[in-house]
Design brief:
The structure holds 3 protein chains of 3 kinds. Chain B is α+β, with helices and mostly antiparallel strands. Chain B has helices spanning 23-30, 34-51, 79-103, 108-111, 117-121, 169-182, 184-189, 198-207, 232-242, 298-303, 321-324, 327-335, 352-360, 386-398, and strands at residues 55-56, 65-66, 70-77, 143-152, 155-162, 220-223, 245-247, 252-255, 258-263, 266-269, 272-275, 308-310, 342-343, 347-348, 365-369, 379-380, 403-407, 413-418, 421-430, 432-436, 439-442, 447-450, 466-472. Chain C folds into 2 domains: 1-151, no CATH class; 161-313, no CATH class. Chain C contains 15 helices and no strands. In chain C, helix 2 (40-50) packs antiparallel against helix 8 and helix 8 (155-183) runs antiparallel to helix 9 (193-205). Chain C is globular and about 55 Å long. The chains are: A alpha+beta, B alpha+beta, C mainly alpha.
Chain lengths: 266, 475, 313
């Protein structure tokens, strides 16, 4: 399936920025059953300083924001061919060792609530995938999808406590639980083409868990499925922080506001 | 002078006769008056104060700048002893760099089971941001200091590897400078190998590691945390001796995809940064977000190949005390040879059997924190009181993985000049190693640290230790 | 050169210069106190004013007597302008720019700091004062000698001298401005012995008593004194000399760097404004006004140099 994406993010500051740097991870991966046909990232109000691939093979671009800037706009546009792999990304590649994906991070730390979730899940499963699908369903059951309760800094534990969350929170909880059960797990940020609309408010996020024999397998808790050809994988990491589409430091520039425009279609 | 029979004295061996490396010096020494030597000793102190060779001690407001005591009796190593040491050091440094490359790539040594994964996985010195990085020349640790102790005629042990930011080289150079000024005639009687070209070699070695894209003469700079750092004198000294800029984080900025320093004429990009700032503080965007000492974006420029950082971030994984205990395996694994220089036998308290042994024998052992340095937080069993030992046992039991233990070695002694004449004091040795593509250079000599208190085994300057000039004789 | 290094050099030498000027001020006050005890209190007060530390002084002391003023100006670490504070600052800056200094300059600075720190450990007795003041001046002379004798005459040298002369110009102008009334012809007791003492203080404060003897006809004359201290380019602490040196060192920088900066225009204007004056026109247009204008321009020039050469990030 060919998925077309146009994604624009505009930051506006009430007071001019004195200086800033932003790391962007917005270029889809050319692996795991998807091929980037074309992709372009344009920036207004900032300068692309350099690019490199990080420890997760994400393409990272570094933008500098010049003093006096009030608006920064980042626009990505392109097409990606995807295929149906039943959610299976395949064998682990790259130099980041599998044990690294068992490291917990502040957002994916397994506290009492994650532990309880894993106890509730039980152990009686035929195989790893069915166990993880059950976990995914249990998480959606305990934490319903709802915007506005959590934000980008919410931890897995906090989201369970709130009983509500968005795709980022679902992914963090699944990752925390999977690591607790001994699986390497990672966060994926990307795009999802929705059947009923073109315009979306934000990108999507889900989780991948490494299962012996199969390799990495994706789980989208929020939608209760494993990724299919409608999913475009962009960046991966131990948690949101390592895969964040845009992150950085801005000095000065008070009262930032952000407007996202996203269209995903066939 | 009286030597303990179980301690090897480098001047007199185990008996009264003078060992051959010291014979030239001993001849000269006998002809010196006690009074004039003591005067020289005082002159040396004035000299050090005037040149500002001081270090800052953390946590001491008063006496913010202290002198490290300098003893005027040199520590002398024969050419033969030295060449054996250098073979061992070279082997070790080669293995350390191979290990570091492996750690940040395929981790073959973990796959082979020679080192348990947990030793790395649970280690904060392992920097994920370094995974997959190919530093220029494949070199991770460009400047290494290997701490060596001696217990007998042919008994040398490596006590510690310093692969992050070894300090003390300025003392090696200034100690020699002081000796040359005070005892010029000695150097015409005894053929001592030069150390003074170290800064030149350092600069050449750093420049040789410039990023591949660098054209022309590489711009080198030294990054210091600032004048309040305990080793600031050394940072300034090395920059000055190399003829390169001494910069702080606030002098640097990302400009046109490079890290550049603010000069009176604008921004100048840096090719090689000899950093004396710890990993955690290098870049607030990649590491500690509160750091004011580093430069935002440094790590990104590094990964993009726009700058060489020496030593590379993440080299601490090789000089951790838990890794130390695996060094013989590491050397065997990467060089195919057995280690030329021995390790001190080490109990890893993380292992239950070892812990039990250590708890039984605390009064005989030296127990160190795995991630500690500078002699802080360690227990010297034979010198500790019952109460100190029992308090330490509690700490050890609550976090065994945090400690390793070693036997108390009978470190060799070298005489120091005291009010009552020569008296033996325990010493160690830190030779300095420079690594550049295809080349490992070891300056003949190094920093000899000496415990100034009789019988004491603690040579750290932060704990009252002093230094000596270290002579390697021409063969 | 790093912008920070230029800043460190500039301030290192400003602070050293300031320590010497403060020592000289104390010396001048001390002489008056010795010779004319009746006027002493007013003299000490005027010295505190000249040093620009009146407010801080009054927060600590009630009376302008010798012991208080000497202690405050020489030793008090809470006084940012005391000799102890400024030589400490000079040394800190020297440590920061250690790589730009020769061993000789650094050692002279460090040794000077150690010597003066030891001398000022305890309160200074009147007997001990002349020796201490002489030591402060001598230690400064050693640093300046090492600077001239061992340093390359490049931008390092120029920024050091910009610091020296910006500071010195400011000091000389302040000394005159605090005392300008004694130079005014309208003062009724012209020719009285009080006047002579006041003039003597001014000359001593800028180490010009000897120069004045040689360059004037020997009689004390306010116009000649003002002329010497403001306009005479042979006098190394005169305003004209300092302004000329600033302009000259900026000129060397322009030559070395291949371009002029806004501070060059300011410096030229600074020099020209003095050159356009004669001592008569200065008195006609008002001595105080001329001095205030000079101090303002001198400060602005210093700040422009800091910006032009990127002293701070």
């Amino acid at each position: 399936m060919r998925v077309k994406v146009r994604h624009s993010t505009e930051y506006t500051y009430d007071q001019a920025v004195s200086r800033g740097l932003q790391k962007i991870r917005l270029t889809p991966k050319n692996s795991g059953g998807q091929t980037v046909v074309s992709w372009d990232t344009g920036v207004e109000g900032g300068t692309k300083e350099l690019s490199y691939t990080d420890q997760h093979n994400n393409l990272v671009e570094l933008l500098s924001i010049a003093p006096g800037t009030r608006t920064v706009t980042i626009v990505c546009e392109g097409e990606v061919d995807t295929s149906d792999t039943a959610g299976i990304i395949g064998q682990h590649g790259g130099y980041a060792p599998l044990w690294y994906f068992r490291r917990s991070t502040p957002q994916t730390r397994a506290g009492p609530r994650v532990r309880q979730l894993v106890r509730d899940l039980g152990k009686d499963f035929d195989d790893d995938p069915s166990r993880l699908h059950a976990l995914s369903a249990l998480i959606l059951d305990s934490v319903s999808y709802s915007t506005g309760t959590t934000d980008f800094a919410t931890t897995a534990e906090q989201a369970i406590e709130a009983g509500q969350g968005v795709c980022q929170d679902h992914a963090h909880i699944l990752i925390a639980a999977a690591r607790l059960m001994g699986y390497p797990a990672r966060y994926v940020s990307g795009y999802l083409m929705m059947d009923d609309r073109v315009d979306q408010d934000a990108g999507h996020a889900w989780a991948e868990v490494h299962v012996d024999g199969l390799g990495w397998v994706g789980f989208d808790v929020s939608n209760g499925v494993s990724p299919d050809p409608r999913y475009v994988r962009v960046a991966t990491g131990l948690d949101y922080g390592e895969a964040a589409p845009i992150s950085g430091i801005v000095y000065g520039g008070r009262n930032e506001s952000m407007v996202v425009q996203l269209q995903v279609q066939q | 002078m009286a030597n303990r029979p179980d301690v090897f004295d480098e001047m007199h061996g185990s008996g009264e006769a003078c060992r051959s490396p010291y014979s030239g010096y001993a001849d000269w020494f006998q002809r010196q008056g006690a009074q004039s030597l003591r005067k020289k000793s005082r002159d040396a102190e004035v000299f050090f104060r005037r040149t500002g060779i001081t270090f800052n001690v953390y946590g001491q407001q008063e006496a913010e700048e202290r002198l490290i005591p300098f003893d005027i009796v040199p520590r002398i190593i024969s050419g033969r002893e030295w060449s054996r040491l250098t073979r061992g050091i070279e082997q070790r440094v080669r293995a350390i760099n191979a290990f570091l490359h492996d750690m940040y790539h395929r981790q073959e040594i973990l796959r082979s089971g020679r080192i348990p994964v947990d030793v790395i996985a649970a280690n904060a010195a392992f920097l994920p941001q370094m995974i997959g990085v190919e530093p220029p020349g494949g070199i991770y640790t460009h400047i290494v200091g290997i701490d060596i102790v001696r217990t007998g005629e042919d008994e040398f042990f490596v006590l510690e590897d310093n692969a992050r930011t070894p300090s003390g080289v300025s003392y090696m150079l200034e100690n020699r400078e002081t000796m040359l000024r005070m005892f010029p005639e000695l150097f015409s009687r005894v053929a001592v190998r030069e150390v003074s070209n170290y800064p030149k070699l350092l600069r050449r070695s750093l420049a040789a590691c410039a990023p591949p894209g660098c054209s022309g003469s590489p711009v080198v700079a030294v990054l210091t945390p600032g004048i309040h750092n305990s080793a600031y004198f050394e940072h300034a000294f090395l920059a000055d001796q190399m003829g390169v800029e001494l910069v702080e984080g606030q002098d640097l900025q990302l400009v046109d995809g490079r890290i550049a320093m603010r000069t009176t004429r604008g921004y100048t990009p840096i090719d090689v940064l000899y950093r004396r700032v710890d990993d955690d503080f290098l870049d607030p965007m990649s590491f500690n977000p509160d750091s004011q000492l580093g430069v935002p974006g440094l790590m990104d420029v590094y990964r993009a190949g726009g700058i060489t950082v020496a030593n590379a971030p993440g080299t601490g994984i090789a000089d951790d005390k838990a890794i130390y205990s695996y060094m013989p395996d590491i050397i065997q694994f990467y060089t195919g040879e057995s280690a030329i220089l021995k390790n001190v036998p080490t109990w890893r308290c993380a292992e239950p059997d070892a812990l039990a042994y250590v708890l039984e024998h605390l009064d005989e052992l030296v127990v160190k924190e795995v991630h500690g340095s500078g002699g802080y937080g360690m227990l010297v069993g034979p010198a500790a009181s019952k109460r100190e030992i029992s308090a330490f046992a509690d700490k050890l039991k609550s976090r065994p993985g945090n400690y390793i233990a070693q036997p108390t070695l009978a470190l060799s002694t070298v005489p120091v000049l005291t009010k009552a004449g020569l008296a033996p004091r325990h010493v160690d040795l830190r030779p300095f190693v420079l690594v550049s593509p295809g080349k490992i250079e070891i300056t003949p000599g190094g920093l000899t640290r000496v415990a100034m208190k009789a019988g004491s085994l603690v040579v750290n300057s932060s704990q009252g230790g002093g230094t000596k000039d270290t002579w390697v004789l021409e063969e | 050169m790093l912008g920070k290094t230029a800043a460190g050099l500039f301030w290192m030498f400003r602070f050293l210069e300031r320590s010497e000027n403060t020592a000289r001020l104390v010396d001048a006050g001390f002489r008056i106190a010795l010779t004319r005890s009746a006027a002493a209190e007013a003299e000490w007060a005027s010295i505190i004013n000249t040093a620009g530390v009146r407010q801080g002084f009054l927060e600590r002391y009630d009376a302008f007597n010798a012991a208080n003023v000497i202690d405050y100006l020489l030793r008090d670490r809470d006084n940012p302008s005391s000799v102890m504070s400024v030589i400490g600052n000079a040394r800190t800056n020297a440590r920061m720019v250690r790589t730009a200094l020769t061993r000789e300059v650094w050692e002279a600075t460090n040794e000077g700091w150690m010597t003066i720190r030891d001398l000022l450990k305890r309160p200074v007795s009147e007997n001990g004062l002349p020796d201490i003041l002489a030591t402060i001046r001598r230690q400064n002379a050693l640093v300046r000698g090492a600077l001239t004798g061992t340093m390359m005459q490049n931008d390092v040298y120029n920024f050091a001298h910009l610091g020296i002369f910006i500071e010195r110009a400011d000091n000389t102008a302040r000394i005159l401005d605090v005392k300008y009334y004694v130079l005014l012809p309208s003062v009724s007791y012209v020719g009285s012995s009080l006047d002579n003492v006041q003039w003597e203080t001014i000359l001593r404060s800028v180490s010009a008593q000897r120069a004045y003897r040689w360059l004037s006809d020997g009689t004390a004359n306010p116009r000649q004194i003002a002329d010497l201290i403001i306009l005479d380019k042979r006098m190394p602490r005169s305003l004209a000399f300092c302004a000329g040196q600033i302009s000259e060192h900026l000129g060397f920088l322009a030559q070395a760097y291949g371009n002029e900066m806004p501070s060059h225009d300011l410096a030229r204007a600074h020099v020209k404004r003095l050159a356009d004056h004669s001592i008569e026109s200065i008195f006609e247009s008002g001595l105080h006004g001329v001095l205030s204008d000079f101090i303002g321009r001198n400060n602005a020039l210093g700040q422009q140099i800091e910006r032009d050469y990127r002293f701070y990030g």
